[in-house]
Amino acid sequence: MVGVNTRTSIDMTEGPLASGIIRFAIPVALASILQQLFNSADIAVVGHFCGKAAMAAVGANSSVINLQVSLFSGLAIGVNVVIAQALGKDDHEKARRGVHTAIALGLVSGLLLACLGFFTARPLLTLMQAPEDVLDLAVLYLRIYFSGMPVLMLYNFSAAVLRSWGDTKRPLYTLLLAGIINVLLNLLFVVGFGWAVAGVAIATVISNAVSAIMLLNFLHNEKGDIHLSLHDLAITPALFTEMLHIGLPAGLQSMLFSISNVVIQSGFNSFGSACVAGNATGLTYESYTNYMDSAFTQAAMTFSSQNYGAGNHKRCRQVMRLSILLGMLVVGAMCLACTLFAEPLCRIYTSDPEVLAYAVWRIDYAQRFQWIAVLYNVTSGILRSIGYSVIPTIISVFGICIFRLIWIATIFAAHHTYPVLASVYPITWLLTSVLMVAAYFLIAPRAWRKRAPS
Predict the structure, then answer these.
(1) Residue 153's closest CA among 200, 202, 103?
(2) Helices 196-221 and 132-147: angle between axes, nearest 10 degrees
(3) Number of H helices, E strands in the chain
């Protein structure tokens, strides 16, 4: 593959697969975990130095941000697949145009999100019934946060380009540095300058700008297929359409997941504040295993994209099997550890007996079985890597979103207990996995037959 820097990238079309998949997945997972830890630090700083109103103002924005960002972040999946396929095929011109289209898309989508977030901040937070005493602070935070969307999207799309090339280390190192800067600026702006909520938001924008500039500089200094020249920034219509075809369904899927999670959260809310607090505590550990699941999914998608582009279908099948096996082993080990040590882990966050009981229940009924989700996530990633993005989205929306809503409206309505509600997670993971694996065996062989092996 032309332009590969062996110090930072992984050769996905040749060499050992298992070690390559692990080398790819672990930095991606660590980057997500670090991001979660730094976001927690934001809330901790305002919570300790500004009081519960400021803390609530920051916390009230997470679902709004996820809802608006998820659609555009889905495009990054399209970027990853299209560029990885071009690199695997040694289509240097398509790879080069893909890089410049991706960065231009990141800038445009960031500007759109900045405008959207600024004008919809107050209506959305009002619609979500944000408490009146924190509404103005929450709106201020959200508007400042969204003003930094152009740099956040540039980071996401630049990271997608590097990962499509097999480089997951530099996005991780960049995020680590930016996260440290974020924490230091939080303390400076909040404690030193007394800027409270505005200080946390400004620190986030600055740290995101640092990470975006660093990745853009990496791409600018690269040679070969993924070299970025600012003079050549342009959206190639054919490549934009291809990226949209793969990325838009994934983005819509994430948005629908967010909506269904809001409905499920209303079910947990019906058990009272202790349940809400305990559920949030258990969900903290669940998010870490979810990041690891997502990392192996990204590895499977990227490795498969390059090998599909190269016409190496046998290796694509090996990628699928190894990604599922390794993902289930690693995620399963994490789930087992959290299950065995659920109570002491949850005591880090709370000593309240009722809250603690709900937190342990969350781990017992949901996270214990989260390794099942690896099966449907990896197979959906493989399908997207060969150009089929709509079908896994339809399956996921039915198996995860619609079935959960039906469960809440029927089974949970008839048996209003925490175990019945929490059990919907493993049930839908298993259902979606069966449907996704069936779709994989129906679609993938036909797709591979369209390309002659290299």
Answers:
(1) 103
(2) 20
(3) 19, 0
| Alpha carbon distance 388, 292 (integer Å) | 23
Tell me how far apart the alpha carbons of residues 266 and 275 are, in angstroms, rounded to a whole number: 11
Query: From CA 171, how far away is CA 215, in angstroms rounded?
Result: 7
Q: Give, to the nearest 10 degrees, the angle between helix 373-385 and helix 424-449.
A: 30
| Six-digit token string for 143 | 């508007």
Q: Which two tokens stand for residue 300?
A: 């499977």
Per-residue exposure over 235-264, b if at least 16 CB sit within 10 Å of its own CB, e if not? bbeebbebbbbbbbbbbbbbbbbbebeeeb
Distances (CA, A) of 17 to 10, 163, 164: 10, 16, 16
**Which amino acid belongs to residue 408?**
I
Distance CA 15, CA 318 (A): 12
Three-state secondary structure call for residue 143: helix
Tokens at residue 52, please?
Answer: 């519960």
CB neighbour class for 283 (10 Å; exposed up to 12, middle 13-18, buried from 19): middle
pLDDT tens-digit profile of 311-337? 898 999 999 999 999 999 999 999 999
Contacts of 357 (CB under 8 A, 6+ apart): 278
Nearest to 379 by CA among 366, 393, 369, 367: 393
Q: Which amino acid is at 223?
A: K
Digit-coded pLDDT (tens) for 227-241: 999 999 999 999 999
